[in-house]
Amino acid sequence: MLQDAIDLQFAEPQQVNTYQEKEMQKTLRYVNEHSPYYKKAFKESRVDVAFINTLEDLQNIPVTTKQDLQKYNMDFLCVPVNDIIDYVTTSGTLGDPVTFALTNRDLDRLATSEALSYTFFGCKQGEVVQQMATNDRRFMAGLACTLGGFKLGVGMIRVGNGIPELQWDTILRMKPTVCVCVPSFMIKLAEFARAHGIDYHCCSLKKAFCVGESIRNNDLTMNILGKKLQAIWPELQLYCNYASTEMQSSFMECECMCGAHHKPNLTIVEFLDENNRRVKENEQGEITITTLGVEGMPMVRFKTGDICYHFTEKCGCGRTSLRLGPIIGRLGQMIKYKGTTLYPSSLYDVLDNISEVKNYIVEVYTNTIGTDGIRILVGTTVPSDQTTKQIKDIFRSKIRVAPEIVYEPIELIAQKQMPSMSRKLIKFFDYRNQNTH
To answer: Which residues are paired to 288 by β-bridges?
Structure first.
C-alpha cells in the first residue's frame, strides 16, 4: 500500500483522476449504506450516488460542516462499536471538540499517510526519529507520526512534548536525525541548550517535521516564527505538515519546500468559496475534503474551515500531486475590524516581532455597536504608555489599524495560554456574541 501511494505521487493527472473516481464511488456507496448521517442527508438532498461518477459530479452533493459534525457527531459512525480500537478528538479550535472513532484499518491508513510524509523530505528506513509532539490526550497527530514511523521502518523515540532536559538527554544519547515537533518549541529547546552549555549546532538533528504551527507566508517565504527558528538553528531543515483530524491524513512539504503535497490515495480535495463554488488556482479557498478508504467515520465534502491558495504545476521534486500554500486563516476566526478584514495570524506576525512582548493573547468580542472589537493582553517587563504607543504604531504600519492593548502578568498569560485540558498553546479567544465584554 505504501509503495502504491508513493507511485501515485508521480503519476500523470489522468491516472490520478481515474484512481480517485473509482475510490470516490466506493466511498459514496459505503456511506450511503452505513452512515446514518449521510444516508439521511443524501435522501433529503435527493442525491443518488449511482449518478456521482466523476470528480466534477461531487459538486452535486451538499457540503458537510463542522457544525454538522458537532450536532450529529456519532451519526457519522459507519461501524459497530466493537470494531473501534481508537478514539481521538479534534482540538475544538472552532467550537466544542468532536470525537472520531478509528478501526484497525483506519489506523493502518493513518500510518500509511505519515509514512508517506516522511518520504517526502527524504527520511529513510533505518533513521532515528525523535517524537516531540503530544502522544496522549486523545490527540491524533502524535499517534499518526508514530505509526507512520513504524510503517516506514525508522527508529521512533517517543519522548512526547515538553521537558527540554529529557529531550536533550535523548538527543545526545540516541542521536536522532529527525524530530517531529511544534516549531516554537524548537526555539525553547535551543535556548535551553544555550543556557546549559549544549552545542546544539553540532548535534545529530538535521530535519524537523513541523506540526501545529505555520512557518511560512503566503508566498512560501519564512514568516516571523520561521525566520527566528532559522536564525537560531540554521542547521535544522524545516518541513511543514498540514493535517486535520477529520480527514485522518495530511499534506506534507517535500525537499523543494514549495507547498505541502496532497496524498491523492487518501483524500479528494476541493477549494471552495463562501458559496461552495470551486475557486481558481490564484484565488484563496476553503480546503474541503472527501476521505478515501476510511472505515469508521468517513467524510464527504467536509469543509475544514482552513483558507489557503493551492498550486497544480508539477513540483521540482517530480511529484505531480497538487500542493497547499500556508494556511491564511480559519474561516470562523475572520475578524472585521474598523473596515479591515483580518485573521489572527496577521496579529501574531506583528506581536512576534516586537521584542518587548514576551507573550500575548488575542481576544475578539462584539462591541457596543455590534461590530468586532479586538483586545490584546500583553505580557511584558516594560508596561508603560510609551510601550503601548510603540505597539500600536507598529500595528498601524503593518495592518493599518491598532487594537486595544491591556497589560497582564507574563505568568498569568502563560497560564491562560495553556489551560489544564488543552493540548495546544491557545493565543486566540473568540467571545463574539457571548456578551462577555
So the answer is: 270, 303
In this structure, the dihedral spanned by the alpha carbons of residues 107, 110, 114 and 120, taken in order and rounded to 10 degrees, is: 140
- Whether the CB-CB separation of 244 and 297 falls below 8 Å is answered with no
What's at 24, amino acid-wise?
M
- Of the candidates 31, 57, 245, 236, the residue with the CA atom closest to the CA atom of residue 138: 245
Looking from the CA of 333 toward its CB, the CA atoms found within 13 Å total 23
State which H helix or E strand residue 115 sits in: helix 104-120
Residues 312/258, Cβ–Cβ less than 8 Å? no
- How open is the CA angle 207-211-212, to the nearest 5 degrees? 150
Per-residue pLDDT at 437: 46
Q: Running DSSP on this structure, what letter comes out for residue 198?
A: -
User: CB within 8 A of 282, min separation 6: which ones?
Assistant: 309
Enumerate residue ranges in the chain where pLDDT < 50. Answer: 94, 436-437
Q: What is the length of the chain? A: 437
Collapse the DSSP code of 310 into the 3-class scheme (helix H, G, I; strand E, B; otherwise coil) and give the result: strand
C-alpha–C-alpha distance, residues 145 and 151, integer Å = 10
Beta bridge partners of 424: none
Domains of the chain: 1-328 (3.40.50.12780), 334-430 (3.30.300.30)
Question: SS3 for 76?
Answer: helix
pTM: 0.80
**How far is it, in rounded angstroms, from Cα 108 to Cα 1?**
10
DSSP assignment, residue 64? B
Rounded to an integer, what is the distance from CA 184 to the centroid of its chain?
15
- Phi then psi dihedrals of residue 300, to 5 deg: -120, 115
73 DSSP assignment: G
The pLDDT tens digits of the residues spanning 212-232 come to 888 888 888 888 888 889 999
Query: Residue 344 and residue 330: Cα distance in Å, rounded?
Result: 9
- Residue 91 has a pLDDT of 61
